[in-house]
Amino acid sequence: MVSVLVAAIIALSSLVLTTSSYSASSDVVSKQDMETYVQAFLDSYNTELEANFRPQFRDLFPFSSDFTYRKNATISSNRGAALEFSPWNQDILYYKTISTRLESAIFKYIDLNTTTVVNSTGYKVVIYTGDAPRGAPFITVLSGSHVSWANTIFVTNRASFAAVAKGGELFLSNAIVDERHFHMLIMRGNNESSAWTSEQAEIDARIFFEMHLYRAFDQSEEFREFLAIPELSQLLEEIIQKHLHDEQYDLSAFQEDLEEVRELAREKYHVSTEFVDELLDYLEKIALAPSPLPWWEVAPWSWILGALVSIAVTAIVMYAYRRMRKKSKKKKRSRTARGRRKRK
User: Fold this and answer.
1) DSSP structure string for 223-290
2) Bond before 55 cis per omega within 30 degrees
3) Residues 6+ apart with CB under 8 A from 321
């Protein structure tokens, strides 16, 4: 009887272990999960693009659901998953699982042994020249951290590129790592399906949209000309300062101020009506949208403020310099006059 009971317990334990093992493996993101994620990502990105910008401005963005992509999903059974978008002549998703470290599979270790980069126009260049142990990570993404890099060339030399902890995420857009180009890459230290949902895809798409927004505005002659008009940029800076310091500044006052910028841009400076509406409607949308960050820290408001702050700082420094020069001249004239009086 005892032997039968022991055998039953062993069989039950084996069943529980098998079930839990199956449950754990079924939590790993599947190809179907990735297909759902990709579709949600494309839909969300395109919604942002079409809702905010006219067709000719959309051409400045490097990503759209109108293009076809090769999507490479790499899932590490050890830890982490990555999804890479590359322009391709057909729309296709490749899904593979690996038993090795995810970062090593995506970023091949290459020691270029160089401190210079040729043909870096349009890119920031980051070159590692330290003496860390060979293969030590150049970028470490901690759990709960998000790191994004766009339009950047990395040369890691003796280092490896990245180490992404579980709960961390690394996004690359138009980045070159040791001579390999990444059009768009999403890497997470989590290979579970819960980290690759449709809801997460919407969040990720917005992050990439804002990354691409900078490049699109930077390439827009209209946007550069708009910010180059001192009166318009000053009005936008005043709007931000009112939000920061005036507790009575409400939504209707904000919208009235934007309308003033709109009318001035059209009527006095003859900026394209289409562009003014597009830009200011988007700025208003950002200011009204719920966000963990204050809206003036979100692009393109943050670039407007950053540009204006640097202009303001320069103006203050020049003003202070002129004041000091005037005082210095007055003192010099005063000393000269006293000297003359003494000689008399």
Assistant:
1) HHHHHT-HHHHHHHHHHHHHHHH-TT--HHHHHHHHHHHHHHHHHTT---HHHHHHHHHHHHHHHHS-
2) no
3) none
Sketch the domain layout of the chain as residue ranges.
27-215, 220-344
Please tell me the pTM assigned to this model.
0.67
Tell me the C-alpha distance between 71 and 200, whole Å: 17
Distance of alpha carbon 258 from alpha carbon 45, whole angstroms: 26
d(CA 38, CA 168): 20
Which pairs from 295-303 meet CB under 8 Å and 24+ separation? 295/243, 296/240, 296/243, 296/244, 298/210, 299/210, 299/213, 299/214, 300/213, 300/214, 300/217, 300/223, 301/240, 303/214, 303/217
Q: What is the pLDDT of residues 125-169, one digit of tens each?
A: 999 887 777 778 889 999 999 999 988 999 998 888 999 999 999
Residue with tokens 């691409």: 212
Amino acid at 115: T
Query: What span, in angstroms and rounded, lies between the C-alpha atoms of 86 and 180?
Result: 12
Residue type (1 letter), 291 = S
50: three-class secondary structure by DSSP: helix
